[in-house]
Helix-turn-helix domain-containing protein (Nitratireductor arenosus), 83 residues
Amino acid sequence: MTRSLHTPEYAAFVRILVEARKNCGLTQQDLAERLGKPQSYVAKVEGGERRLDVVEFAALARALDVDPSALFGRAMEAIADAQ
């Protein structure tokens, strides 16, 4: 499997993250502050320029006040649909 950030599956994963942030009513800046990161970090994740590892994903989910397991489930469904 390719590790590219530019696959339909990874794009689907990112769409779920962006959707979750917007559903929480947060801007990229708001989320970045909750994560203790610069806004550019969130922009790069959402723009598909930076790949998240599982620990970063869990931190992002918690910063959104979303259960990481539930968010991961939604992401897996979106990935399956993209295949």
